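Issue: copy button drops trailing tokens. Both records pasted manually instead:
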Amino acid sequence: MKTCPSEFNCPVEATLQLIGGKYKAVILWHLIENQKRFSELKRLLPKATEKMLTQQLRDLENDGLIIRTVYPVVPPKVEYSLSDFGRSIIPVLNAMCNWGEEYLSSINAEIKSCK
């Protein structure tokens, strides 16, 4: 169920509504280069239960960030890819990645200095 834009108090809140789920940003990150099947995403997110991963994918699809393509073959083949709208979030994901790398570097430096 989509949230009405008037329900947001600030742009950060609107962004987090779309990508703030437990695995949403990570799923989007893995879809930047190419589409993935459910099993590939499950391998990339080993801590995610199938139920949680399915829910996160549904939310991303309902919000228009990803496209779910079902191929009429047996067994069924389903692939997920970024929509054009989903591609517009790539700069945000890149910024999150860069910030995370700096943060991890500082933590690793702290851990080494404590030994």
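Record 2 (pasted manually too):
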Amino acid sequence: MMTIHNQIDLMQTIQQMGFLPLLDSGIRGYSAEEMTDEDCRYVVFPDGGWDWPLWKWKGPVVTEGNCVYGKFFAQKAGFISRAWWSDFCNYRRSTHPQPEEGSIEEAILLTLQEQGSMITRELRAACGFTGPKMRSRFDAYITRLQMGCRIVTEDFVYPVDKHNREYGWGWSLLTTPEQLMGREACRCEHTPEESHRLMLAHLRQLLPQASEQQITKLLK
């Protein structure tokens, strides 16, 4: 595993590995966080401020890094290179079928398709999830749609202070992969079973320290 020192290293690592969870994946050493140099790890300052280069890199990497970002790995966020996206999308959509007509998931997708892209809270309001305790319920739908490769993150939007400086953790700007990359990027020449076999073989070679169960869980 290579060590990530900067944004360019992160981009290159995603392309080399094909699949890269952002945080702990359950497989030792296999996440962008664990591969990042110690000098670039999350740090809290005495005044309460913080710095986390990896968190700041992910936005430009998503928009410029020839990869796709979303909650793809056991409902946790990560990157997938565009070279592997068609196989990943092909397999995942076979195990997470198209939302049923009239379902909440379909309504979310239709709203997003009509608008092109929306930050999570705007999408939640547009879909009527404005009452008490609705946020966590809505986020669960979004996560399921990301796991099924129906929704991805296009970018991150940050609020700005009175000095026009960005602050906070930012909001995901959501869209569909078809709108982000075009329909052809989501088409695959393999069957879902063939895509799964190709990804399994790739990850077995990439992660000799991982058990078969861990790799299977990653792709599930």
